[in-house]
Amino acid sequence: MATPPHASSHGPVPGNPYSAPGEYGQAPAPGNYGPTPSGYAAPAPTGHAPRACRACGAQSAADFKVRAHVGFLIMMKFEHLDGPFCRACGIAVVRQMTTRALFLGWWGPLSLVIFNPFTLVWNLVAYLKFSRLPASAPAPGRTHLDTGPPVLRRPLAYVVLIPIAWAVWIISQAVTHSS
Ligand SMILES: [Zn+2]
């Protein structure tokens, strides 16, 4: 007598909030393992994240910093952008920051002699690192940074001729006076 009501009471059970098809419908047997790793799955992508380009999400990226320097008299500003960057975005950032340093980095004594040359050498190393990476596609829905023209096709970079001319003048003066 009690059996038929029980059987019919099993019917409505799937409609219960506890047996919502999305949650437990797939979970019972394999879901035992499913939910457990998903609790640990969150740290796993962050473990991969530092390797992906921070600008476009491309998978092969190098974690290297790109610098720029601004120096006016005693005011100095040390700028940098942290990686990781992929090949395309890395080259884009190096070109942009290097042009900035070539334009704004010379106008204080320490900047001229120490910090801006250091910045340029650093960016050369960065450029070599990024240019050795394989080209990689950006993550879906994202794009590479605009690489733009090479540094030497950017007019602002030629401001570097002023400190170079000055250095040549200083050296030639030293040579003339010593001989
Ligand atoms: Zn990128």
Characterize the structure shown.
With 179 residues, the protein is mainly alpha-helical. The chain folds into two domains: 1-41, no CATH class; 53-178, no CATH class. It has seven helices and four strands. The protein has helices spanning 3-10, 21-25, 35-41, 43-48, 87-104, 109-132, 161-178, and strands at 61-62, 66-72, 75-81, 85-86. The protein has a two-stranded antiparallel sheet with strand order 1-4. The longest helix has 24 residues, at 109-132. It is elongated, with a radius of gyration of 30 Å. The model is unreliable at 1-49 (pLDDT under 50). Zinc ion binds next to β4 and α5.
Q: How many β-strand runs?
A: 4
How does the overall form come out from the CA principal axes? elongated
Bin the helical content.
40-55%
The radius of gyration is 30 Å
Please, how many domains? 2
Give the distinct bound molecules.
Answer: zinc ion
Mean pLDDT: 80
**Secondary structural class:** mainly alpha
Provide the fold topology:
Layout: H1 3-10, H2 21-25, H3 35-41, H4 43-48, E1 61-62, E2 66-72, E3 75-81, E4 85-86, H5 87-104, H6 109-132, H7 161-178
Helix pairs in contact: 5-6
The chain binds zinc ion.
The site of zinc ion has 10 residues, from strand 4 and helix 5.
What descriptors fit this protein?
7 helices, 4 strands, two-stranded antiparallel sheet, elongated, disordered N terminus, 179 residues, single chain, mainly alpha, binds zinc ion
